[in-house]
UniProtKB/TrEMBL annotation:
Region (Disordered): 1-59
Upper lineage: Bacteria, Bacillati, Actinomycetota, Actinomycetes, Nakamurellales
Gene that encodes it: qor
Protein name: NADPH:quinone reductase
InterPro entries cross-referenced by the UniProt entry: ADH-like_N, ER, GroES-like_sf, NAD(P)-bd_dom_sf, Zn-ADH-like_protein
Annotated Low complexity bias: 42-55
Entry's Gene Ontology molecular function annotations: oxidoreductase activity
Domain Enoyl reductase (ER): start-end pairs: 71-398
Organism for this UniProt entry: Nakamurella endophytica
A UniProt-annotated Pfam family: ADH_zinc_N_2
Length: 404
C-alpha cells in the first residue's frame, strides 16, 4: 500500500468527511510513522471544547490518518496519508474510529462499479464503531465518551471523523468494537431483508446464498433465531461452521445446483436471498414455493462484468417486475439499504430501531460475531486483499487506533 507523503495538506470543510470525499490528493508526513501519527492524534482527539456556533464554524482542525482510494486500483494501490479535518459543526459529532468494516462494496468502488460512488479520490469505509470525542453546537455534550455506530457508505477508513450526530446509534459498552462492527451494514441489511421485505416467520424454509459472507453469516443466524429452517450455499471449507449455526450447507460449486437445492427442499422455499445476480436470480426465483419471495440485493458474481452499471440495474429491475406481475403466486424484489433515505426521519428511525435490535441480540449472545481478521488501518490493502480472497467467513475489520 502506498504512503502518500508529498502532496499538499487537506483542510476539509466541516461535514466533508460524511461523504468520504477526499479532495485533491494530499498528505503530510508518512502514514508509516504510526507513532508520530498517534502522538499528533492523541493531542487532537481528546474531549476538547465543543465547536463554535454556526456564525463562527471555527478554524480548529484535527489530525487524522486515513486511507484513500485514489482511482481504479488494485488493493495495493490504496494510499495511507495524514490529513487534517475541521472540528464538528452544528449538529455534528467528532468520532474516534475504533473499528471500521471492509465490505463487498469497496470491491465495486475500486473498479468504479458501485452505483453512486463519489468521484476519486475518496476515503472508503462503509461503517464504523467509535467513541464520541467532541460535539458541535446543538448536540448534547453527554454524548461525549459514548460508544456509537454509524453507517457511512464511504469515509470510515480513518482514525477520526465528523458525523451528523442524529445518525449515530448507541453501541452497548460491553460489546467489543470489532465484534459490533460485524453487524452494522451486515446486520441492518440482514434484518431488514428478513423482517421488512420477506417477513420470514417461524417454520419458514429459507435459502441464503453466500451463507459464509459478511451479510450471509448474520442473515442465517437471524433467520434461525426467527425459527426458520435455513439452507445456505457456501464453499465446503465453511460447512462445519455453518452446521454449528444450525444451517444446512450446500456446495455452490458443483453442477446441478438448482436440482440439489430442490432435493433439499422439495416443497420450495418461502424466501430466497440472492446477492449474486444474473442467472442466479432466475434460478432462485424458480426455487420459490407459491407465496414465496425472492429478495435480490447484489450482483457479486458480476463484479468484473463490463458494460454500464446503470443498464445492468435497469435490466434487473425490469426482470424482477415482470416476475412479480406474472400470475405465478411468487414475488421478487430488490433490497436497497439506502432506499427511502429521502424521507430522512422515517429512514433514520428504522435504521436506529433495526440496528439497535441487532446490536442487542449480539450483546445478549443470540448472535455470534464472525470477525475474519483484524488489521491496523495502515494495513488496509492487506485487509482488502483478504476480503477479496474468497476464503473467509464473516467480516474483515480495520482497527484504526492500532498502530500495528
Ligand atoms: N443491497 C444492499 O443494500 C446491500 C447492502 C449490503 C451488502 N450488499 C451486497 O451483499 C453482497 C455481500 O456483501 P458482503 O459484504 O457480505 O460480501 P462478502 O463478505 O465478501 O461475502 C460475499 C459472499 O458471496 C459469495 N460469492 C462471491 N462471489 C461469488 C460467486 N461468483 N459465486 C458464488 N458465490 C460468490 C462469497 O462466497 P466465497 O467466500 O466462497 O467466495 C461470500 O459468501 C454484496 O453483493 C454486496 O454488494 C447489498
Amino acid at each position: 500500500m502506498a504512503q502518500d507523503d508529498g502532496s499538499p495538506r487537506i483542510a476539509a470543510k466541516p461535514g466533508e468527511t460524511s461523504s468520504g470525499q477526499a479532495g485533491p490528493a494530499s498528505g503530510v508526513g508518512s502514514g508509516a510513522d504510526g507513532g508520530a501519527v498517534n502522538r499528533a492524534l492523541g493531542a487532537a482527539v481528546g474531549p476538547g471544547p465543543a465547536a463554535a456556533g454556526p456564525e463562527d464554524p471555527g478554524p480548529e482542525v484535527r489530525a487524522v490518518t486515513e486511507v484513500v482510494l485514489p482511482g481504479l486500483v488494485e488493493p495495493s494501490g490504496l494510499v495511507v496519508r495524514t490529513a487534517t479535518r475541521s472540528a464538528p459543526g452544528p449538529g455534528q459529532a467528532g468520532v474516534r474510529v475504533d473499528a471500521a468494516g471492509v465490505s463487498f462494496a469497496e470491491q465495486g468502488m475500486r473498479r468504479g462499479r458501485y452505483p453512486g460512488q463519489p468521484p476519486f479520490p475518496f476515503v472508503p469505509g462503509y461503517d464504523l464503531v467509535g467513541t464520541v470525542t467532541e460535539v458541535g453546537a446543538g448536540v448534547d455534550p453527554a454524548l461525549i465518551g459514548r460508544r456509537v455506530a454509524a453507517l457511512t457508505k464511504t469515509g470510515a477508513w480513518t482514525t477520526w471523523t465528523v458525523r451528523t450526530a442524529a445518525d449515530l446509534v448507541p453501541v452497548p459498552d460491553e460489546v467489543d468494537a470489532g465484534k459490533a462492527e460485524t453487524v452494522l451494514v451486515n446486520g441492518v441489511t440482514a434484518w431488514q431483508m428478513l423482517h421488512r421485505k420477506a417477513r420470514v416467520g417461524s417454520g419458514a424454509a429459507v435459502l441464503v446464498h453466500g451463507a459464509n459472507g459478511g451479510v450471509g453469516s448474520v442473515l442465517v443466524q437471524l433467520a434461525r433465531h426467527a425459527g426458520a429452517r435455513v439452507v445456505g450455499t457456501a464453499h465446503p471449507r465453511h460447512h462445519d461452521r455453518l452446521r454449528a449455526l444450525g444451517v444446512e450447507p450446500v456446495d455452490y460449486r458443483e453442477d446441478g445446483l438448482a436440482a440439489r437445492l430442490r432435493a433439499v427442499a422439495p416443497g420450495g422455499f418461502d424466501a430466497v436471498f440472492d446477492h449474486l445476480g444474473g442467472e442466479s436470480f432466475r434460478r432462485s426465483f424458480g426455487l420459490l414455493r407459491r407465496g414465496g419471495t425472492l429478495v435480490c440485493y447484489g450482483t457479486a458474481a458480476q463484479v468484473d462484468a463490463g458494460g454500464s452499471v446503470l443498464l445492468q440495474f435497469v435490466r434487473i429491475f425490469g426482470r424482477l417486475a415482470v416476475r412479480t406481475v406474472l400470475p405465478n403466486g411468487r414475488s421478487a424484489t430488490f433490497y436497497n439499504l439506502w432506499g427511502g433515505r429521502r424521507r430522512v426521519r422515517r429512514f433514520r428511525r428504522r435504521l436506529h430501531e433495526d440496528l439497535s435490535e441487532v446490536l442487542r441480540l449480539l450483546s445478549e449472545g443470540v448472535l455470534t460475531a464472525h470477525v475474519a481478521e483484524r488489521f491496523p488501518l495502515t494495513q488496509a490493502a492487506a485487509a482488502m486483499e483478504l476480503a477479496e480472497s474468497r476464503t473467509v467467513l464473516g467480516k474483515v475489520v480495520l482497527e484504526p487506533q492500532r498502530t500495528r
